[in-house]
Amino acid sequence: MKSNTEKFGKTPHQSSLWTRADALKVRADDPTTTQPLVSADFPVLSNEVFIWDTMPLRDMDGNVTSVDGWSVIFTLTADRHPNDPEYIDENGNYNITRDWNDRHGRAKMYYWFSRTGKDWKLGGRVMAEGVSPTVREWAGTPILLNDQGEVDLYYTAVTPGATIVKVRGRVVTTEHGVSMVGFEKVKPLFEADGKMYQTEAQNSFWGFRDPWPFRDPKDGNLYMLFEGNVAGERGSHKVGEAEIGDVPPGYENVGNSRFQTACVGIAVARDADGDDWEMLPPLLTAVGVNDQTERPHFVFQDGKYYLFTISHTFTYADGVTGPDGVYGFVADSLFGPYVPLNGSGLVLGNPSSQPFQTYSHYVMPNGLVTSFIDSVPTDETGTQIRIGGTEAPTVGMKIKGQQTFVVAEYDYGFIPPMLDVTLK
Ligand code: FRU
After folding, report:
1. 128-132 long-range Cβ contacts below 8 angstroms, 24+ apart
2. What is the pLDDT of residues 279-331, one digit of tens each?
3. Mean pLDDT throughout 140-161?
4. Whose CA is nearest to atom 1 of ligand 1?
5. CATH of residue 262
6. Model's pTM, two decimal places?
């Protein structure tokens, strides 16, 4: 099998850098890049389950797609335990915060459907218990492959390890709703290699997850983005001139920022079906800046590549900071060089008065940004909070050249289709 470089005649690209100087430009609470306040009286999608990462059904080109007029989303989902003694505190109250914080360990893929692109109805689990090879079913992407309704779900099988996998099934519609059938055989695709992407052996806090396959609008080939960390033993990374960037006098000290090593990974498919993949060097690295660039995804617009990724305040390195939210970068070609949007990279952050109100933003090609509600303060001091585990209001955004602007707010969980496919 020829390697990608032979097959496509490309020289390996240079990873673009999100530098400390870029991150110094991040300004929380700039109204053009801040999500409007989420009110504490938000509605909840379900009292039985928490949901967080939301993955709209889409085609390989990134278009959010309905089938026979039904919109479909997949969500990371975990049962709520209001009556489980494990989550009842000494005063007899349900400790929802602890239940919510524990959710990652029992995350499962569920799907929901809707006629209106909101007011989602719970469809159920995508895979039956025992189908997925590991305990956790973490984020990924459901792709509608054709008008037969075939769906490839790419996701991350976690604990033990972290493997990018896919499972094929089919979406079936009736007048009354949608079901997902099949999804019985999970195919492992690849894991971190330790040469380009950090492994668990190199760092027990490694990240390797969140596959987002796509067809490059320019070369037509099949690629996949994913979240990774730059390979190497924890603590061995160098934060040098390139990673620091052009900082003002007094900003040369990088502290312990060598521990923050996020990157956006990319792989290329060797076959048309996306069953055989080759990892390529990261598209973007954030060594010395941030430790997590999660759920990377693209919007292709005006012949440009808009790369979005979510990140947290707590994963920033010493001496740089920014809000929880979605960050973005733009390039004229797939392999870069990428430039941070809005100078800093910040595209849509939480307001500092409600730093955890939303997370896991997903920017759709129509400029709509969906996310989930994490927690919203219910008093002035922010000590009392209400846990979400449900869809946040959708935000409308304009992308213009190297800038983005918040321009609208829509209903909770509003994810309208861009295309409808009539099943044969
Ligand atoms: C983002 C995220 C993903 C991961 C999942 C785990 O919210 O951290 O990167 O797949 O949640 O629950």
Report:
1. 128/183, 128/184, 131/167, 131/183, 131/184, 131/185, 131/186, 132/157, 132/165, 132/167, 132/186
2. 999 999 999 999 999 999 999 999 999 999 999 999 999 999 999 999 999 99
3. 98
4. 360
5. 2.115.10.20
6. 0.97
CA–CA distance from 285 to each of 41, 197, 262, 291 (Å)?
Answer: 39, 11, 6, 10
Q: Which atom of ligand 1 is nearest to the CA of 294?
A: 9
Continuous H helices in 70-184: 96-101
Q: Which domain holds residue 386?
A: 4-421
Shortest-distance Cα residue to atom 7 of ligand 1: 360
pLDDT band at 1 (very low <50, low <70, confident <90, very high): very low
According to the model, what pLDDT value does residue 134 have? 97
Domains held by the chain: number: 1
Q: Which of 55, 102, 209, 225 has most ligand 1 atoms within 8 Å of its beta carbon, as the pocket-test mutant? A: 209
Q: Which atom of ligand 1 is nearest to the CA of 156?
A: 10
Closest ligand 1 atom to Cα of 76:
12
* Confidence label for 2 from pLDDT (cuts 50, 70 and 90): very low
Verify whether ligand 1 is closer than 6 Å to residue 87 (CB atom). Answer: no
Question: What does the pLDDT look like over 10-37, one tens digit per residue?
Answer: 567 999 999 999 999 999 999 999 999 9
Torsion of CA 90, 96, 99, 102, to 10 degrees: -110
Gyration radius (Cα) of the chain, Å: 21
Whether 45 lines ligand 1, by a CB cut-off of 6 Å, is: no
Average pLDDT of the segment spanning 201-214:
98
Q: Is 374 in the pocket of ligand 1 (CB under 6 A)?
A: no
Alpha carbons 39 and 18: distance in angstroms, whole number: 33
Greatest extent of the chain over all pairs of C-alpha atoms, in Å: 66
pLDDT at 7: 52
Pocket lining: 104 vs ligand 1, CB cutoff 6 Å = yes
Is the distance from the beta carbon of residue 76 to the nearest atom of ligand 1 less than 6 Å?
yes
